[in-house]
Amino acid sequence: MMTAIETPVSSDVAATLEPFADSYQELLGGLAYIDLLVRWAVARARAHGLDPDDEFRGLYISEDQIDSLLGYELGSLWPNPNGQLAGMEGWPAILAQSRQQWQRRIDAGYQAGTPHLFSSLIRTFQLSPDEVDILLITLAPEIDPRYERLFAYLQDDVTRKRPSVDLVLNLLTDSFVAKLEKRRLLTDDSRLISSQLLARFSENTGKEPSLLGQYLRPAARVVEHLLSQPGLDEQLVDCARLTFPSEPVAWLPKDMVEKLTLAITSIPIEGPLPLFAFEGGYGVGKLAAAEHLAQTLDQPLIVARLEALANSDVGLIEGLRLVLRDGRLLNALVYLTQWNSVLEDNSPPFEILDLLLAYPGVIAVGGEGVWQPEGQSRTRRILRVSFATGDYEHRLQIWQRCLDDSNLGLDHNGLPLAQLANQFLFSPGQIEDVVATAQDLALWRREPLSARDFFSASRAHSNQKLNTLATKITPRYRWEDIVLPKDTLAQLREMVNTVRQRPVVYGQWGFDRKVALGKGLSALFAGESGTGKTMAADIMAGELGQDLYKIDLSMLVSKYIGETEKNLNRVFGEAETSNAILFFDEADAIFGKRSEVKDSHDRYANIEISYLLQRMETYDGVVILASNLRGNLDEAFTRRLHFIVEFPFPEAADREIIWQVNFPPETPLAKEVDFRLLARRFRITGGNIRNIIMAAAFLAAEKSEPVNMVHLLHATRREYQKIGRLIDDELFILGD
Q: How many CB atoms lie within 10 A of CB 92?
């Protein structure tokens, strides 16, 4: 027998029209309307012959169970004894009144300025009444599991516990024509599906079911959000994070803060919000700018990494849809990093930019370079904000602030902050990283933080990609290790002082406004091989606390047109973020005198030289060129150098000192060793002398003897043979 269901009494819709007290009451109010809708559907199903006494139906929910379930209050565990209803008259009117009452209470909340989560979702996503009802229907089994059994009953299958598209449309309308028209509400490009509020799915039946045969469920994050549990979709766990900025942003210059604030506070209420295009390298303040915007708007901040999204299981487009959906749910400012990873020919794909421009809130993208949208009409403004590393004064302030904020208890006067700020062109974010790394280094040594830790950490955080293009030399020599004429040593010290005093000359004394290019330091070290050019560069790097990279120019020069310039560009491009001293060996390979143009090869050779001159002038670091013969260099090139240092062939007195200083104190040395004799007898460079001493040391170690003259003379003979010198046997006989 078919059991009748009573029509709900009209007093149920005569409730007050005050706003809902909270988001839970608002949601339950909407589900109360859905509960009536389901009751009406059950009544219609019974009226149209859904016979529970059919012996062929197999497993199903019995009539007694259905009546019992319908007697439950929303979300309760026990049936309502007054829930057994007898008639069906007045259902449409009661449903309309219940829906209208819920909507009017939502509107009252808006008028009172206290909208709750579900009503905010409706307005944010601009959902129509039908779309709201669809969302509520799919939410019902998430809130109260009894609806799983009710939906199974209505779909005549105990395994179909989620509402299908067909069931949802049947709940919305009795008209077949209207049902066909409402299918568009659940297609792929519909608002509910494309915005990731709902998901369509099907059981693994081996074939794709029709649209009506697919099931619907709300996104898990949407459910949690409506239950007052803010967060991001679990599929974004490795690609995005949600923050609630509250602390003042420390790293942004004052003028930048003022411009950002004005950009969002001066927009008309009904006007479209801007899309911010942040441009700059790592740590320059792009994230800080996004945090400042979020604080100014009193909104949470979602930071998503686009390259990580592209490499994730969810994919770039679907992942971006999830980010933007969660941004709408949370009324958040969205900041997308790694923007360059999505650009195609310096322009974002249409699909991506369209998604961003459709986002109703403030959105920002962060990349390293300038980009342009092409072929797209838009009403939303794109505000470009360029971030620079900052000048010396700004870097010094960041260093001081980082040390203060880290509570290290350090005396700034005991640390070379001025030298660090001058020599390492770090962004604020990089300086923060350096301070943390310096603390790690000191902790490992179990010693207090020292200047050495900060210089080591600074070198570690400089761009290490230059290792693939040049040979890194770890500085190990000091001024006392090199033997040069006094004037040559004075020139080298002047070079070091020039680097150290750049903040004073260019900053405090105003020369920065007078000099457009050439603010770095370029020098030529001219002299024969082994006269100390590389050692001098090593000492300078050690004094300045910077890395030294040795580049063999002969390896960069290519016979193919344009390849030499590409190789040089790679070197200087990586060096700009390496804070390193560049030491170009074998400079004669490219810096010879520019020839008269007689053919295309001459013309391109001159282009290579001009290109190198240009890159040297725009490089802010130290560039040292090493050449065996100064006369081989072009005069136009030498005019662009700040220093030209001659490394003369050492005379006997200098050679004697070189012999002495190259023996470590620990080396056992025979008393008869005569450095003056060796210096007078053998006219060789410091590099040759070092080779001889090393070879003699191995000979002595093999015989377990102190280094003596026999070992030194034998090693000298071998060095003469190696460099192709004529050997006079008398030179290698002991005695004066």
A: 11
How far apart, in whole angstroms, are the C-alpha atoms of residue 570 and residue 564? Answer: 10
Position 442 pLDDT exceeds 50: yes
Tokens at 242, concatenated: 């949600």
Q: Each residue of 700-709: b (16+ CB within 10 Å) or e?
A: beeeeeebbb
* Cα 354 from Cα 371, distance rounded (Å): 16
Q: Which fold has domain 479-647?
A: Rossmann fold (3.40.50)
Amino acid identity of 357? L
> And the tokens for 729?
């046997």
pLDDT surpassing 90 at residue 555: no
Task: Tell me if domain 234-386 and domain 652-732 are identical in fold.
Answer: no
Provide the pLDDT for residue 414: 59
Q: What are phi and psi of 112, to 5 degrees?
A: -85, -5
CA 376, 378, 379 angle in degrees (round to 5)? 170
Token pair 């379930």: residue: 69
Lowest-pLDDT choice from 437-451, 459-473, 658-672, 689-703: 459-473
Q: How confident is the model at residue 165 (pLDDT cuts 50, 70, 90)?
A: very high
Specify the higher pLDDT residue, 405 or 148: 148
Q: How far apart, in whole angstroms, are the C-alpha atoms of residue 4 and residue 9?
A: 15
User: Residue 385 forms beta bridges with which residues?
Assistant: 278
Structure token pair of residue 63: 């009539």
**3-state SS assignment for residue 726:** coil
Mean confidence (pLDDT) of the chain:
82
Q: Which of 129-143, 393-407, 426-440 is the least confident region?
A: 393-407
**CB of 275 within 8 A of CB of 363?**
yes
**Residue 195 near residue 321 (C-beta atoms within 8 A):** yes
Nearest to 584 by CA among 606, 551, 627, 629: 551
The ranges assigned to domains in the chain are 10-226, 234-386, 392-457, 479-647, 652-732
Contact 365, 278 (CB under 8 A): yes
Cβ–Cβ under 8 Å, residues 93 and 106: no
Can you read off the two tokens belonging to residue 156?
């005549």
Architecture of domain 652-732 in this structure: Orthogonal Bundle (1.10)
Q: Is residue 713 pLDDT above 50, yes or no? A: yes
- Higher pLDDT among residues 292 and 591, named by residue: 292
Q: How many C-beta atoms lie closer than 10 Å to residue 263's C-beta?
A: 18
Which pLDDT score, from 0 to 100, does residue 602 have? 46
Separation of alpha carbons 365 and 290, rounded Å: 9
Judge: domain 234-386, CATH 3.40.50.300: yes
The full 3-state SS of 312-361, as one line of letters, equals CCCCHHHHHHHHHHHHHHHCCEEEEECHHHHCECCECCHHHHHHHHCCCC
**Alpha-carbon span 694 to 677, nearest angstrom:** 18
pLDDT band at 3; cut points 50, 70, 90: very low
DSSP 303: E
Bridge partners, 518 (sequence order): none
Tens digits of residue pLDDT in 714-726 = 999 998 998 888 7
DSSP secondary structure code for residue 476 in this structure: -
Distance CA 342, CA 69 (A): 52
CA atoms within 13 A on the CB side of 282: 10
Residue 728, pLDDT > 90, answer no
- Which of 1-5, 375-379, 578-582 shows the highest mean pLDDT? 578-582
Task: Look at strands 580-585 and 521-527 and give their pairing.
Answer: unpaired
Tens of pLDDT along 617-629? 888 889 998 887 6
Torsion of CA 31, 37, 41, 43, to 10 degrees: 110
Q: Which helix (H) or strand (E) holds 215?
A: strand 215-218
Which secondary-structure segment (H or E) carries 523?
Answer: strand 521-527
Segment holding 585, helix H or strand E: strand 580-585
